[in-house]
Amino acid sequence: MRTAALILAVGVVAGGCGTAIGPDPGLEGLAVSKVAPDTIIPGTKLVVKGTSFVESQWGAATLRLKGKAGGKDIDAKWPATFVDYMTMTVAVDGGKIDELGGDVDFEGAATIEVLATSDDNTYTSEPLTVDLDFRTKLTPTPNGLDATGVIFVNDQLQVSGGGFLLGGDEGTTVARVTGCFKLNGTGTCTNQAGIEIPMLPVDPLSREMATFAFSPKIAGIKPGSFTGKVTVINKQTGIAPIMATALDIDYDLVTSQVFMVDPPAASLGQYVFVHGGGFVGGEPNATTELELTGTFKKTGSNPAPISMTLIPEFVEGRLTRYIVNTNDELGQSLDLRTDTGSFTGTITPVISYGSDRVRGVSKNVALQIAPVKQVVYLDFLPSYVEGLRDFGLRAVHAKIRDRIVEVCREAYRGVNVDIRVEVPTDFALYEHVELVGVDPNDMGLFGYDNSAGKDNGNLRLYDRLGGVNALTQQDGYAGFGGVFLRSLLGFSKHPGKLAKGVPGADPVFDKIFDAFRADQGGEPVTSADLSGDLPALTSGAGCPASDRKTRIQCAIYVLGNLVGGTLSHEIGHSVGLANPFAEGFHNAGDAPNRLMDSGGDRPFLERAMLEGQGPAVFCDDEYAYLRMILPTSESADDITRPGCF
User: Residues 503, 476: one domain?
Assistant: First the structure.
């Protein structure tokens, strides 16, 4: 909801999750699948991969190494830090290595042990057999390099071998390049006494392969030949540099070039990836420009000549990316919110470094400007996942998430909205919505759009519904945004210490969830409940149910509907609803199944899609507005929509 005056307050009271019954659902599948890297030095961040890891508030995790090292029995227990549900890390310092005996090889088993806060039991993974080498220092041992051939400036040159540092607190491995550069057409040799370029591991957990960029610092950006040597050096923290034997190199440097452009169609806020070679950037006085020359045919118009220069973002020597935006020549020549069309012509890279400027090789390309799209990233934070414990549904979080996404996509069917659960890498401008456990505003909100001001016409595209917005706080509104899971317990007739009931509390809510709520004597869902087939429900016709399997299916369906409907409502606020291009954030009055009605006018059964009520949808004028600002070739849905007035 958008305004404090119209918020459906639930009022959360801080408290625990009740007495756990059966195994902790977050830790049932605790397992370790990998411990890396296999050579460990002071400063190494040891990475543990596996499943069913939990945040520290739900359990204190320990990596246990039990076996032999240096002829001695070892039983080391080191604190592990939660990164995500499949990753933990252990910071290794000199003291831990001394604990094992210094420079030793460990053979044994690795386990993760978690002392759970839910039931004070210790959960232990099955042991994973590991061989780990502990060293106080590392000597690099390069044994392979593509030492000859044709390269572009900033090409990544791959070095194989071992003993490379992984960065961070370990230190850095560098490549020192020395030699002679001859510009094409001249016999003059320009000597390079030694440029050090950081090396990066190809695999962040392996010391066997690393790359360094043939930087323009070495030989500039003009075409020519370079003959010299590469010396790999470990600059380990607290230790004098350790050098390897130098490797000979002999390269022909060629002019920058574009190979391909993708995707073939892009819209406002989207990345256009330009693949090629010889691109520069990311440092002072280094710039890559892209010249477009050809014709542009705006939809509904005749082709017109076009010539412009775009400034892309440097990614690495073989890749730049351009953001379709309103601030440069392209964005000023078109209305990227309403205009579409296609460019046909050439793209030419122009590379500048210091006082040098080199025009690269042109490439024929075709690129379409697509209709504006609103990408929405749903960020299911750990506090949301663990918040499902309140409902006894932690074990089925993935199934609930799938239902939430389905509800959101259905709400925006026929509108150019793209709902995602992974961080977008193809769009620079996208909406980010956080789902968390508890309302940090302490107002018991179901959801809240904390973006600054009503975005009539959805001009921003990049709203963040989550975290804290200081500008919103200054306006007198709640500062924290997102969707708040625990507040939905306000629909219970007996929310207990978790929430205060709301006027719309409904006994059907309790018939759906009491069977799983530990605070009501229910049995939370566990892995044993998921051993058979558990297909997703497409309707709530059989809910509430009497048998446990169907009760679980109903709970997934209903909670997915409650959260998905709240999300769809808050996303609606962020794109300028309700009352398009007018004041106000909710529909006037109360009517059945209107998604943008205020919270108190949206009863539980409608939100849950039970007993023939729901689903709530955008009313007629709102849907027309969405189709206008976010057009798509997809046909409008054929449902009958309620009026907005």
Answer: yes
Asked if 212 and 198 touch (Cβ cutoff 8 Å), the reply is: yes
> In what helix (H) or strand (E) does residue 224 lie, and over which residues does it extend?
strand 224-236
**Burial of 624 from C-beta contacts in 10 A (0-12 / 13-18 / 19+):** middle
Residues composing the chain? 645
Please identify every stretch of the chain with a pLDDT value under 70, giving residue numbers as ranges.
1-22, 469-479
Do 462 and 315 share a domain, yes or no? no
| Cβ-proximal residues to 347 (8 Å cutoff; 6+ apart), any chain | 258, 261, 274, 290, 291, 292, 362, 363, 365
Query: How many other C-beta atoms are found inside a 10 Å radius of the C-beta of residue 16?
Result: 11
Residue 178's identity, in one-letter code, is T
- The answer to whether residue 620 sits within a structural domain is yes
Task: Express each pLDDT in 564-596 by its tens digit.
Answer: 999 999 999 999 999 999 989 999 999 999 999
Structural domain that includes position 272: 257-369
Question: Which pTM value belongs to this model?
Answer: 0.93
**Residue 406, SS3 per DSSP:** helix
- Residue closest to 326 by CA, chosen among 261, 267, 367, 265: 267
CB atoms inside a 10 Å sphere around CB 642: 17
How far apart are alpha carbons 76 and 323 in whole angstroms?
50
373 Rama class: left (phi>0) / alpha (psi -120 to 50) / beta: beta
Amino acid at residue number 19: T
In whole angstroms, give the CA distance from residue 485 to residue 502: 15
CA dihedral over 257, 259, 265, 270, signed as positive or negative: negative
Report in angstroms the alpha-carbon separations of 636 from 339, 439, 620, 631.
21, 35, 12, 10
Q: For the CA atoms of the chain, what is the radius of gyration?
A: 30
- SS3 of residue 319 by DSSP: strand
Which residues have CB under 8 Å from 471's CB, separation 6+?
Answer: 452
Query: What is the per-residue pLDDT across 85-104, written as a single tens digit (0 to 9) for each?
Result: 999 999 999 999 999 999 99
Whose CA is closest to 10, among 400, 448, 451? Answer: 448
Closest alpha carbon to 305 in 293, 322, 318, 320? 293
Contact between 464 and 481 (Cβ < 8 Å)? yes
- For 359, phi then psi, to 5°, come to -90, 125
Q: Are strands 148-152 and 257-262 parallel, antiparallel or unpaired?
A: unpaired
* Among 268, 300, 274, residue whose Cα is nearest residue 365: 274
The distance in angstroms from the start CA to the end CA of the chain is 19
Domain end point (choices 108, 134, 160)? 134
Contact call for residues 192 and 180 (beta carbons, < 8 A): yes
Whole-angstrom distance, CA of residue 513 vs CA of residue 562: 13
pLDDT of residue 21: 52
Indicate whether 96 and 213 sit together in one domain: no
Give the CATH number, domain containing residue 225.
Answer: 2.60.40
Task: Strands of 70-217 (E only): list them.
Answer: 72-79, 81-84, 87-91, 104-116, 122-124, 128-134, 144-145, 148-152, 156-160, 171-183, 189-198, 200-201, 209-213
